[in-house]
Amino acid sequence: MYGEFGDLNNFGNADLTVAHFPEGKDRDRRAIFFMGLSYALEIPSIVIDENIALYPPLEGLSKRTFPYKPAGLDYLVNLKSLEIQKESNVYYWVSKKYNILKP
Question: Are 50 and 23 in contact (CB under 8 A)?
């Protein structure tokens, strides 16, 4: 997510940021920083957090949170627009496929 940005003046040109937190590893503070920066610049963030214990502030910073990497990748591959109706249709399709929204 943070790669070789160098000068952050162009960070505001991003359409979407994605953070992946693999199971069993500490959450990368730089990734959380960039999520906060994205939030401040009104850039949507997608989080793939595979840890059992969720970190509540991430939920507030992210547009969508996925508990499994395959679900997050399916969402990103099928996301063609951030327009609310199209985006929510993709989210509900992925949620149903991976049983993320439990009754």
Answer: yes
Buried b (16+ CB within 10 A) or exposed e, 8-37: eeeeeeeeebbbbbeeeeeeeeebbebbeb
Q: How many CB atoms lie within 10 A of CB 51?
A: 15
Q: Do 34 and 17 form a contact (C-beta atoms < 8 A)?
A: yes
Instruction: Note the pLDDT tens digit of each residue in 35-60.
Output: 999 999 999 999 999 998 888 888 88
Distance from CA of residue 13 to its chain's centroid? 17
Residues in Cβ contact with 101 at an 8 Å cutoff, skipping those fewer than 6 apart: 92, 95
